[in-house]
TrEMBL record:
InterPro entries: PIG-T
Protein name: GPI transamidase component PIG-T
Ranges annotated as spanning the membrane: 196-215, 707-728, 782-799
Keywords (A to Z) from UniProt: Membrane, Transmembrane, Transmembrane helix
Entry annotated with the keyword Disulfide bond: no
GO BP field: attachment of GPI anchor to protein
Coiled-coil spans in chain: none
One Pfam family cited in the UniProt record for this chain: Gpi16
Cellular component, GO, one term: GPI-anchor transamidase complex
Length: 801
């Protein structure tokens, strides 16, 4: 793409500001800009056609034409120096000011949005689920550039902005650059050319820096990304596996990261490595380990249908602590100082049974401008806590299934003193299963209003401390069992003098069960020893009505589709030809149930093994199992982690059911449409679950052997050099004379003489030393000792190597 500038008349070249003749500021900036002689700039595309200048560029030119002459007149009147005049002119005509003023008329009145919501849900096993949902939206606005009011800047840099923005900046600033260069050409004969050169080059450098910094926004070109930090494992059998929370927010232990890039396929790996290093520094985690080709894979169709541009990686052993939560909270406009995030007390969160913080980023910046919806950032925090209710345990000590009463202050130790002032909405939802109201079927038929009144007025088995502002009932087209009711509370009505503290009190024991996925998936290891083994994935029927509500009934020819996505490290040598399938405890041919399979074998120290499989099982299946045999590889001593004896982790397998979707059918109204959380629940997402993380013991060397070798080697060398120095420095004749003198005196006389010398404080008289000529320096014994030590050293060196 080239830029062609056509002008009606040749403009008079401006002279230097330091010349003898004073110039008119209008002629200096925009000479001969009257009538048809104004500069008309067109963009010549590669196909030869021309495009007229955009509206915001014409507005920017109009601003320059109007304000700049006035500015120069005021500067001459106030006798401002030349440097100050040019610097003020640059601030007036800066790229950011031109871009914001020019694009303000183009971009509509869209503003950034921030919503905060909290979902509370009692679980059947006497626990409470708290799901925090924070949603930030940045509209497609060229006036924002790299700066936002609510949206976090660190996240916006991960996304691809429209490529027309930098090009539009060049079209807006061509007038300033042309003026600077024409001014530079006419300053050679000026006495103040040094000052003008300095100012002009400074202006050009700052302008170029603006353009280069604008290009840094596109350094990752992420179209879609999800990052999660999880501690604990989601209990699918007790907490459910069919609802939107368990399908979208239940994540495997450790760190999980996947991203879709808007770049050619041959550049995806390079962008993935840069992204992992950036996220590692942003969230204070070891995500940079995922940059290695042995730690990530490229799923084709089983995980998400984005062939070639998707990368997936996990760190099962990554520890999650407060240093990961603090950067996550800093992305919120109010952080944890106000709003619903003020409930996030660190001790209360990390003492729970399950904790998962998730960040989901989407952008439609690569599509045409008329369909761009901006950047969307979802921050969710899912916590499963055990409420402490001494009153309920003391009154109903004999009832083991009695649900404990709880409140926000008893669970988190804090109350909500109002919403975040920057949030457009702040809502707390309480979700209860309809099976709790099974004893009052008449109230269900009367509609949600009567159901709400009976719920908190005492007609049902529970009592709420506050009256809900809205009641939303889930519509289940097939049957009422398994649906739920949502009670909404507006947080904006409360303040510090009247804080929000929702409480739920149970009157008598209630029983219900969460909605389950069609099949429960579990994974385990088979075999023994450090040489071979096998991986087994077991599917068991949930035996619930919810599993058969996926638009099919059990009949002849009914099929249940199951997607299996599994990644194994390169040191686990999986033999994919050893795949076996057992249906209802009977071995079956693979071709009868495996509809589609794609295998990517592992390469030593290069890439992990990956398997994608689509199973079609009968709807009335009770159990199914898959087995794969593998060999355990050997690692180099430098590749072992510090805790090598603990074992090595195989990441969780992803199990999904394409024909089943976790969606909530809610009555459509304005409250639901304005709620990002409820809108998310109404999206159709296939049911998905994760298996356990496997711990594989590998052959581990004895890491104490290097210590033992170093110890014995140092001991031998110490003895060798010590004996050698002792032999070389010892004088045999002198020692013999001392021995003879001692024998003549006797040991008693020597002892008495030493004692007397000690008492008198005088040194003991030593015998006269013989002359050096009397005793030979080298004797036969010395030579024999040296030869013996040398022979021992040579023998040790020969046998040790």
């Amino acid at each position: 793409m080239t830029i062609q500038i056509r002008k009606g008349k040749r403009a008079t070249e401006p002279q230097c500001l330091g010349s003898q003749r004073s110039l008119n500021s209008e002629d200096l900036l925009f000479p001969n800009q009257t009538g048809d002689s104004k500069a008309a700039v067109y963009f010549q595309l590669s196909n030869g056609r021309f495009r007229p200048p955009p509206a915001h560029r014409l507005i920017a030119h109009h601003i320059v034409d109007t304000i700049a002459p006035i500015f120069f007149r005021v500067s001459r009147t106030m006798w401002l120096p030349l440097r100050l005049t040019l610097l003020l002119l640059f601030l007036l005509l800066s790229p950011r000011a031109l871009l914001r003023s020019g694009s303000a008329a183009v971009v509509s009145g869209e503003e950034e949005e921030f919503h905060e919501e909290l979902l509370l849900k009692p679980l059947p096993d006497r626990k409470v689920l708290a799901h925090f949902h924070f949603h930030s939206i940045a509209p497609p606005s060229k006036s924002n550039g790299r700066h936002h009011h609510l949206f976090p800047k660190a996240i916006s840099q991960l996304v691809l902005f429209p490529s027309s923005v930098p090009f539009a900046m060049w079209s807006d600033l061509d007038l300033i650059l042309n003026f600077l260069f024409r001014l530079l050409n006419n300053c050679f004969s000026s006495s103040r050319k040094y000052d003008v050169f300095l100012i002009v080059f400074a202006l050009i450098g700052v302008i170029v820096g603006e353009f280069l910094s604008f290009g840094q926004v596109q350094k990752f070109r992420v179209k879609e990304m999800e990052l999660s930090f999880t501690q604990g494992r989601w209990n699918y059998e007790r907490w459910g596996g069919f609802d939107p929370i368990s399908s979208n927010n239940a994540k495997p232990p450790g760190v999980e990261l996947w991203a879709v890039f808007d770049v050619p396929e041959d550049q995806v790996d390079a962008y993935w490595k840069n992204l992992t290093n950036s996220l590692s520094g942003l969230f204070c985690a070891s995500i940079n380990f995922l940059e290695s080709s042995t730690m990530y894979s490229a799923p084709k169709w089983s995980f998400r249908i984005t062939p070639g541009r998707l990368r997936y990686g996990t760190l099962p052993r990554e520890a999650v602590c407060t240093e990961n939560l603090t950067p996550w909270l800093k992305l919120l406009p109010c952080r944890d100082k106000a709003g619903l995030a003020a409930l996030l007390d660190r001790p209360s969160i990390y003492k729970g049974f399950y904790h998962s913080q998730r960040l989901y980023l989407t952008s439609n910046a690569s599509v045409p401008a008329e369909t761009v919806s901006g950047i969307s950032l979802e921050q969710t925090l899912t916590v499963v806590l055990q409420p402490n209710s001494p009153s309920s345990s003391s009154i109903h000590s004999g009832e083991s299934n009695f649900q404990p009463s709880w409140s926000l202050s008893s669970i988190f130790g804090r109350k909500i003193s109002g919403k975040c002032v920057l949030a457009q909405s702040s809502i707390v939802y309480l979700q209860l299963e309809k099976s709790i109201f099974s004893e009052q079927k008449d109230n269900m038929d009367n509609g949600p209003n009567s159901l709400a009144s009976e719920g908190f007025a005492g007609g049902s088995g529970f009592e709420m401390s506050l009256d809900p502002d809205i009641v939303i009932e889930e519509e289940n087209q097939s049957q009422h069992k398994g649906s739920s009711v949502l009670y909404g509370f507006w947080v904006e009505k409360y303040n510090e003098s009247q804080p929000f503290d929702l409480g739920l009190k149970w009157k008598y024991p209630v029983f219900w069960s969460s909605r389950q996925a069609p099949l429960h998936a579990s994974r385990f290891l088979m075999g023994s020893g450090n040489e071979r083994g096998a991986i087994a994935i077991l599917f068991k029927s949930a035996n619930s009505a919810d599993s058969s509500s996926g638009s099919r009934h059990v009949s002849d020819g009914c099929e249940l589709q199951v997607d299996v996505f599994q990644v194994v490290p390169w040191y686990i040598k999986v033999y994919y030809h050893s795949l076996q399938i057992f249906v209802d405890d009977e071995a079956k041919p693979i071709g009868d149930f495996v509809h589609k399979i794609q295998v990517s074998p592992s390469k030593d120290k290069t890439s992990p093994g990956m398997m994608e499989m689509l199973l079609k099982l009968p709807c009335d299946v009770r159990s199914a199992a898959l087995t794969l045999e593998f060999d355990k590889g050997f690692l180099h001593i430098d590749e072992y982690p510090p805790d090598a004896n603990q074992g090595y982790d195989i990441p969780s397998a992803v199990i999904s059911f394409p024909s089943f979707h976790s969606v909530m059918h809610l009555l459509s109204n304005d409250s639901i449409r304005k709620s990002p959380l409820l809108s998310r629940f109404q999206e159709k997402n296939r049911v998905q679950s994760y298996t356990e993380v496997l711990l594989v013991p590998l052959t581990t060397p004895d890491f104490s052997m290097p210590y033992n070798v170093i110890t014995i080697t140092c001991t031998v060398f110490a003895l060798f050099f010590g004996s050698l120095l002792n032999v070389l420095r010892r004088r045999v004749g002198e020692e013999e004379r001392y021995l003879k003198a001692g024998k003549k005196k006797g040991w008693l006389r020597v002892l008495l003489s030493r004692l007397l010398a000690k008492l008198r404080g005088k040194p003991m008289e030593e015998p006269d030393q013989p002359s050096s000529e009397s005793a030979p320096l080298i004797g036969k014994k010395l030579v024999l000792k040296v030869i013996l030590v040398a022979v021992l050293a040579v023998a040790w060196q020969f046998y040790s190597t």
